[in-house]
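Researcher: Next sequence.
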Amino acid sequence: MSFFNNFAGMGPEGGQAPEPRTALGRFWQIYTHHTLGLLGAGILAAVTALVYIAAVFLGVTSHGLIFVLVGGPLGGMLAMPQIIGVADTVLRAIRGEAGFWWMKYRAAWKKNLKQSLVFGFLVGLLCSFQYFILLHARNVGFLIFVLMLAGMFISVAVATWSVPQIALMDLPLGRILVNSLTLSAQHPVKTLAAVAVTVLYWFFLVVTYPISLLGYVLFNFWLPMLVSLMTLWRPIDEVFSITEKLEEMEEQKRAAEKAAREAEDAEETPAEGKER
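Model: Next structure:
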């Protein structure tokens, strides 16, 4: 099986294969059936995230907090709509949803744009500031250092749970943040696993720079998000009944199409009788 050429499931005829028993097999199935969408959404997010990365890099290397306070939220606003787009693509891939990726990506991007900008501002400011303070902490007590790490963990956990909610549902941002805190407390093991995947992935890219530039181009946001959302998908689906709602929408769509066809047939039948 090739690493890049299996695009089954990306078009209207894509079928869903039986789900593998292992997590690694499931990951490979999702990737090979949705390669184009994952890579496309990932590269868009990677390009637009360069402003945020540059701001944090300048802030840390020059010890200039102004770069973080200005560039962090600005970069977050620029990148977050595309990051939510990655989440939407990943969640569709996890559900095994077929269809043309670009059409669905654009529709989801427009629908989530306003909330993504606000969320990007908050996440960009908070995470960049926390990272800057952590790296510049000097002569702080052990307890303060632990509290700083705990704050960063909570921020990443809330963001990790919030991103799929923004992609999936139309809820106020405040409600999404409360949901994320609640879900983090209700599912501590899954939360810890998802946060660990995200943090270790980006930590590895940072410490292996510039060798990691190739990894950033290829795997950017889609790889850690796919792993983390595979971990969180079951509780998200159970709490918000995503699968049930999608099945109901599909049934309503089929019923509407059937009613439209019956109406068209009813209109054509009298006309044919008159011609005879």
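Model: Residues 46 and 220 are 6 Å apart (CA to CA). The two ends are 60 Å apart (CA to CA).
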